[in-house]
Write a structure and sequence with these properties.
The protein is of the alpha/beta class and about 200 residues long. It is about 50% helix and about 15% strand. The chain has one domain: P-loop containing nucleotide triphosphate hydrolases (Rossmann fold, 3-Layer(aba) Sandwich). The chain has eight helices and seven strands, in the order ββαβααβαβαααβαβ. Helix 1 crosses helix 8 and helix 4 runs antiparallel to helix 7. The two termini are about 15 Å apart.
């Protein structure tokens, strides 16, 4: 039988670019699923334990594992016709860890679900730094984010190498950014795609 395949949309970007705020808004506008890190059971506890080791390669491989789980969860949902929006996918993981000094290839791993559209959220650097200052004042700016900051130019090079579509959130509300992303998705993926599924029924 024929089934309509859903679209897979990812949002990546530097810390303070608005990913966490915009992703659920974009998913809602697209009538899709916002796939969070909660797709991995006990995510928060495991993340804290890995982060606490301070071991960069361990952190990279843990995040790669988490992204593979997101990938397979998204693949299943897309296969049922759902649109899926994920924030912080493989590009973010690779970009962050390269900026921190780990030599990992700027590419999607073999077998991973590649997005139909990969968005790079961006804002004016002054705006981003102000957001980071507020996080630091509230105690929510992590050691790892601080470690990336001196070399965010490398993060940007990774995003460029992976061909992400830049969306500028400067002087836009989160709702406006989400609407812009939804418009880009609709213009670039205008028609549902049909995939043939093999039926195992024997009549």
């Amino acid at each position: 039988m024929d089934v309509t395949r859903g679209s897979f949309i990812t949002l990546d970007g530097l810390s303070g670019s608005g990913k966490t705020t915009v992703a659920p808004l974009a998913a809602a506008l697209l009538g899709g699923v916002h796939l969070t890190d909660g797709a991995l059971p006990t995510f928060s506890r495991m993340r804290a334990e890995v982060d606490a080791t301070g071991i960069l390669p361990a952190r990279l491989h843990w995040w790669m594992m988490a992204n593979h789980i997101k990938s397979e969860t998204a693949r299943a949902l897309v296969g049922t016709g759902r649109t899926v929006v994920v924030e912080s996918y493989f590009p973010r993981t690779v970009a962050t860890h390269r900026a921190m000094g780990h030599d990992c290839a700027p590419e999607y791993p073999s077998g991973a679900l590649v997005p139909d559209l990969a968005i790079l959220l961006d804002v004016d650097e002054e705006v981003r730094q102000d957001r980071l200052r507020r996080r630091a004042e509230s105690g929510t700016l992590s050691y790892w984010h601080q470690r990336e900051e001196p070399n965010v130019a490398e993060s940007t090079r990774v995003y460029r190498a992976l061909g992400l579509v830049r969306v500028d959130g400067t002087d836009r509300t989160p709702e406006q950014v989400a609407a812009l992303i939804a418009d880009i998705v609709r213009s670039r993926i205008p028609k549902p795609r049909l995939e043939r599924k093999k039926s195992h029924d024997r009549n």
